[in-house]
Design brief:
2 copies of one chain form a homodimer.
Chain A: H1 15-20, H2 37-51, H3 58-65, H4 79-91, H5 103-120, H6 136-149, H7 156-181, H8 185-196, H9 203-210, H10 227-245
Helix pairs in contact in A: 2-4, 5-6, 5-7, 6-7, 7-10
Chain A binds a DNA duplex (30 and 30 nucleotides) through loops.
Chain lengths: ~250, ~250
DNA sequence: AGCACACTGTTTATCTTGTACACAGATCAT
DNA sequence: ATGATCTGTGTACAAGATAAACAGTGTGCT
């Protein structure tokens, strides 16, 4: 199997991933494939958007595409493989950042765009990735983010850490916002807690709860416009800025 | 069913959660339960630690406990319910923060302790929670974190946001570290990318990759001791500190 | 004391899903 | 041409969550 040759492009990836990177396969005998990994991914994403990730069964997806269940396995090694391809498709190509803005503005753009993607495809959070991502789109986002941060004085090490921090911030923020996005979810949660909380044992939670800080409007359902989002991101960027100011390039 | 009375303690939670909060059930007829939610959770956590989350099937868990599969459903409403209970058990009770340290030191403690828990129970990340968490331990961690941040001049709203940011940072950082923790994973990942990357299209990724910033040692496998971890956390705390310095209490 | 009911753990059965395997036809290298 | 290879298909199975009905158990009420 030439697929396993370690020196070939895309070694170690699934066949699907390799196809996403546009790598040609070796032997081109047999009938031409009637589908493509990308087309499958697009349909799968649409299905997940419409009915949730659980609705994306191999059978349902295949049926939507007008093929049999097993035909999918010619393109994707397993459901897990499919999910990873779906994530790459869902995040889409990276944004083209405004060149006239400084690194900080660009990272804000980047973070906002990422948040928007997550809001558009909430099920992405439910996909469990065991290994670091290798999809072309995800790597593209990395490139865009690294490029922006590379305009600071930070060294590669710090650039990587910083982007990771920003990415982590965006993810956790959106994830929480999504949980509160269900109408009434915040109130229901607050009510549950109040009904069970011992005020003496947990005074501060009570205070925050009563302050309404976590009520419906506060953790905004919207992506970038949220004051919440901007506030926390500001924290992170302030930190990066401070480090950048006192760092020598390595 | 008195379980559904909206004014009763723990309304809206699963029976299991209510039991974790120590709420007594109403009718106490019939035979005494042979197990307890907590005992089940402990065994389930042990199983997940040892063999991964997938190994935690209702059948396997029940067998370990010496009962039939279906008996578990007397304690837990569904597998999903079990998973949520497991998470609360896995994070455990919150740390008691050193009272002599300032808010910043305490939050560092808090973050380190949280990271340690995640490292000890990596499968926690694979559990998908649709709603905000309501387990007593998780709320306990909230309390501890809020209490520390409450020593700043920040208002409740900012306190909540700040802790969320810290928590998000810890989670994403540990999650990534775990992915690179598999021996050779970082190298394999770097090799894969290099073999597929077009240097012209993605120059910055190439630079970071070649800098070794993401090689095995860099993203440390260890919790708090990691320079990585401290660096990023420092960013976030710097940000919080700056805001706190210029904020009036609301 | 006795009785009815709430509650326990069990047994049995079902339904959903992912996926291995073998096949028939298509197509290209030689 | 011809055989190796690749495609989509049909069949079959195994794992796993959970619904339903059941028989025993202990409590509270009479």
């Amino acid at each position: 199997m030439s697929d396993d040759r370690p020196d070939v492009a895309g070694a170690g990836m699934s066949r699907a991933m390799r196809q996403l990177w546009g790598r040609r396969e070796d032997g081109r005998r047999g009938p031409k494939p009637a589908m493509s990994v990308r087309a499958i991914a697009v349909e799968a994403v649409a299905l997940a958007d419409a009915e949730g990730l659980d609705a994306v069964t191999m059978a349902a997806l295949a049926s939507r595409l007008g093929f049999t269940t097993m035909s999918l396995y010619r393109y994707v090694e397993s459901r897990q493989d499919l999910l990873e391809v779906m994530v790459d498709e869902a995040v889409g190509p990276p944004p083209t950042l405004n060149r006239r803005r400084g690194w900080r503005g660009q990272i804000e753009e980047w973070a906002g765009a990422e948040a928007a993607q997550f809001f558009a495809h909430p099920w992405v959070f439910a996909v469990q990735t065991g290994a670091p991502p290798v999809g072309p789109n995800l790597v593209g986002w990395m490139e865009a983010g690294f490029a922006a941060l590379n305009r600071t004085r930070l060294g590669p090490q710090e650039v990587a850490s910083s982007l990771l921090t920003v990415d982590g911030y965006v993810r956790s923020n959106v994830q929480l916002a999504l949980q509160f996005a269900v109408p009434g979810a915040a109130e229901r949660w607050a009510t549950q807690l109040r009904s069970v909380l011992d005020p003496d044992a947990m005074p501060t939670v009570r205070i925050v709860l009563d302050s309404g800080a976590l009520e419906d409007g506060s953790v905004s359902t919207e992506p970038e416009e949220s004051a919440e989002f901007g506030f926390g991101l500001g924290l992170v960027l302030d930190g990066i800025e401070r480090i950048a100011a006192r760092t020598q390039r390595h």
